[in-house]
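Sample log: parp.
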Amino acid sequence: MNSAAPLCDNCLYVIRNRRLFKQFENSRSQLGQHAKITFVYHGSPRECLRAIAENGFLEPKRVKQMSSNDLESNKMKILDAGYFGQGIYQGFEADYAIHCAKSDKHSDEIMLYAVLPDRSYTIKKGDEKYGRSCESGFYSHIPPDAKEIVLFQSAHILLIFIIRFVRVPNSEIVEEDP
């Protein structure tokens, strides 16, 4: 038994964006029939998730060239240059995305999407990648703790759902016998 207050989904929004779907499928076909799809999560404020659902993620190269006025007018905030490379960060577990959304962005929503990580560069402790582009010959980076993945091409991301969570107070999780 666990006495921690669990989270449950309160609302599920399906994302249907034909342009992003075509972009993802084109990338998938370019990578070949063995392109592996991985499901990941991203936490952000509601208005940011809605903008991402409509427009997709901005290319990291483009964000790097934007002025602070451009960022502000697009309601974007860059927390840092990217510890594991200047890219698009996603968590492999919903709990991790919820933690990031709640602690950094005071949000109760996360996004679930499919990614094409293809060749991932696994970063070793002490390997300096802060603010750098993708390692040559790779499409993504995986940090030493392997809790998240960093992508560098928005075409490798297919948005699927926005999920809103609510904390269920004073509930216990009871595991059933199989």
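Observation: The two ends are 15 Å apart (CA to CA).
Observation: The mean pLDDT is 83.
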